[in-house]
Structures are given as C-alpha cells and as structure tokens.
Specification:
This protein is of the alpha/beta class. The protein has 14 helices and five strands. It has helices at about 10-15, 25-35, 35-40, 45-50, 55-65, 70-80, 80-95, 100-120, 125-135, 150-160, 175-185, 200-215, 250-265, 270-280, and strands spanning about 140-145, 165-170, 190-195, 220, 235-240. The chain has a five-stranded parallel β-sheet with strand order 2-1-3-4-5, sandwiched between helices. Helix 4 crosses helix 5 and helix 9 (about 125-135) crosses helix 13. The longest helix has 22 residues, at about 100-120.
C-alpha cells in the first residue's frame, strides 16, 4: 500500500490491520489515507461526523491500529506534520479559552514586544556588520522570498533601492521560475538576500541553495540557526516570530529589516544626498501647497447658478 507524505508508519499500521477491520473501520481508514493532514487537525467528533460513523467507532478504529485511543492515534498522525500543523494547534489552544477582543489585542501586542526584545538580544555585532558590508559591496542584490516573505522582501527592496544601484525583488507573478532565470546570471560580486520563516517555502530554499553552490554570498533573514536556510548563508540575521494566531508574526521581521536598512543608510556614502533627492522627487505627490510643485493642481472653482465651470491653468 502506498504511504502518504509525512507519516509512513501510520499507513503501514493501516495496511497491516486492514484485513481485520470492519466495514465502518475501513471507511475511516480510507478517509485517513486520503486526508491525513485534515484528520491530524480533527477532534474525534469531527472525524466521526465527516466520515459518517459514531464516535465509538472512531475510537475503536484507533484501538484496532494498536493505539490506546483516539488521542494517541491523532498524536502519532500529527508527528509527520508537526511543523506544518503547529500554527493550527496553537490557534486551537487559544480558541479553547474564552477571551475578549481587548484581551486579544493586549496578548498580541505583548507577544510582539517579546519577539522584538528577543530579536534584539539575538543579534551579534559581527553578523550585523557583515550584513551591512555585504549589502554595500554588492554589485547587484537579488531578494528572494515567497508567501508572506514576498511582502517583506518588497519593503526591503524599497528601502535598499535608495542606497544601492541595482536591487531586484525576485517575487513576481511568474513565481519562482523568474527567480531561477535571474539567478542563473549570478556572479560572486552579487548578493542574494533570502527571507524564510516557518513554514519555510521550498522555492526559497532551492534558489538560495543554487546561489550558495555558485559561490554567491547569501544573507539570510530567518528565525533560528536550526532553519534550513541558515546552512546556506554566508551571514544570518535572526528574528523571533512567535504568534498564537498565525504561523508567524511579521512585526519583528519588519523591525529587523528596518534596523538593517537604517544601518545601511548610516554607513552608505552619500546617504544624505540620496535622501534629499528622494524628497525632491516625491514632492509633487505630497499633500500641501508646495511652491515648487512640478505638476498643476486643480482648484475647485466656486460655481454660481449661472456660471460655467472653467478649467484650471497650469
């Protein structure tokens, strides 16, 4: 019998017990093999209702697989998907305890504050200096990150673009194939910045691996030294991203990115001139009556009952 990803031992247990299972148990077994991830998140009453059997039948099914009961069966099933299911289990635990909206606000903001402090404490001077130095020395910078990391990568690209000549975000509507095509042109003078947090996107890891194999420096923004991105990196900066409601809290990562870009701004040559040029270039798009505005502003004329609207002049 083919095994399903994440927990082949469960499939083996079912295969061994299948000849002795009742028709109802076989019905449950079929559903477990087809939907292992969903079953790993289901309490016993939900599985029984979904399959159309009694709760007692679902519990006897677990015992037929040589577990003490359904909780032990589900715990074994979860093991194969532990990292993937962690956010689901955390959310389940939170929802089991009543809380007001104010409680949730307070808890979420307190968790963010703890993440920020843990992130600050984890940074070491040498890694921070190496990261800034790698950015300022790079001929071209390629930022890779998918899922929520693509949004973080966009903010990183926006900030670095002010101080670096060639910064490219490789998250596009074309997906990772665009990143693969661009990274084929990498040179040792370039820099890849890879962003990956649990749940780690395999595309980010694959592209970072290709850069690493090509001898191109990789700056990793990730959660811990145990991250699969860390061994591929020339230098890593870590952010703690615990969240009771989501797979990650993005706030500490965003803070780390802002701190990194602030250090780049401080160390880059001509950063003051670059900031002044940026301010001058965006001035026409800022609210307010600026004397050196580059584009005309329509003034709303006051129309009487017998007057016709007039066009504003540049």
């Amino acid at each position: 019998m083919a095994t399903f990803p994440g927990n082949p031992s469960m499939a083996q247990r079912i295969a061994r017990a299948l000849p002795t299972l009742t028709r109802s148990h076989q019905q449950v077994a079929k559903y477990v093999l087809a939907h292992p991830l969903q079953v790993a998140t289901m309490p016993i009453d939900e599985l029984a209702a979904t399959v159309g059997v009694s709760i007692a039948t679902a519990n006897r099914f677990a015992r037929a697989l040589e577990f003490d009961g359904y909780p032990q069966f589900r715990a074994a099933l979860v093991l194969g998907f532990e990292a993937t299911l962690a956010p689901v289990e955390k959310l389940r635990s939170k929802l089991e305890h009543p809380a007001t909206v104010n409680d949730v606000f307070d808890s979420a903001l307190s968790e963010i504050a703890r993440n920020l402090e843990a992130t600050r404490q984890s940074l070491d001077t040498q890694s921070c200096e190496q990261a800034v130095d790698a950015i300022l020395k790079a001929r071209r910078i390629f930022i890779i990150g998918y899922g929520s990391s693509s949004w973080l990568g966009g903010l990183l690209q926006r900030q670095l673009d002010l101080y670096c000549d060639n910064v490219q975000l490789l998250a596009s509507i074309e997906g990772s194939s665009n990143g693969a095509r661009m990274l084929a042109r990498l040179r040792p003078q370039d820099l890849v910045i890879a962003i990956a947090f649990p749940r780690y996107f395999s595309d980010t890891l694959l592209l970072a691996s290709r850069a690493h194999e090509a001898g191109v420096p990789v700056l990793a923004l990730t959660d811990t030294a145990a991250s699969p991105l860390a061994p591929l990196a020339t230098v890593s900066l870590y952010a703690q991203t615990d969240s009771p409601y989501f797979s990650n809290s993005e706030a500490s990562v965003l803070a780390l990115i802002e701190a990194l870009c602030s250090a780049v701004s401080h160390c880059a040559k001509g950063s003051l001139q670059a900031a002044a040029r940026l301010t001058e270039s965006v001035l026409p798009w800022l609210d307010g009556n600026h004397a050196n505005r580059l584009r005309p502003v329509d003034k709303a004329p006051v129309h009487g009952p017998n007057t016709k609207p007039t066009k504003s002049t540049p």
